[in-house]
Amino acid sequence: MTEISKSELRQRLDALIGQPISSGQPVRAPDPVNQPMIRHWAYALSDFNPAYLDPGWAARSRYGGIVSPPVMLQSWTMAPPKLQGIHERGGVPVEIRDNPLQFLADAGYTGTIATNSEFEIERYPRVGDEITAETVFETISDEKKTAMGHGFFVTWVTTYRDQHGEVIGRQRFRTLRFKTGS
């Protein structure tokens, strides 16, 4: 564990606000929005909205064709999971080269728990959309005392765009980075 003063920790946290989570922004979805994946999602979640599954119905709807469930936005741009070494990475399904929050772990804030996720949808993704995602740190709270331990609520926002740069939606994702046993 690295000793770091509370003021230095706060300065480092504040410096992250507005910064990208990782390099290589934006992340491009490996595939365009497509009917087979929409169908898999709809069946997995028992969401049989005809706008997702019935081309005839969808063509006559306000959408003009098949659309994706809006909360699928994140799934279109997710990296394929790498299972080898997942235990050593603490359950993280992707390798992180330069974790911008590593200094928190080094300072003893090794616990991580997702607390909530919120979506703002501008429009439904359409079949054929090529989605990109840009993720930046939005807010980092002051240190809080929680039932899990003392820690910081870290919120990032991902903005999803189509191939024309039009915003489709945003997702805010919040985690608690905490000291276990504190």
UniProtKB/TrEMBL annotation:
Residues 31-168 form the FAS1-like dehydratase domain. Gene3D superfamilies: Hotdog Thioesterase. Pfam families: FAS1_DH_region. Transmembrane segments: none annotated. InterPro entries: FAS1-like_DH_region, HotDog_dom_sf. This is FAS1-like dehydratase domain-containing protein.
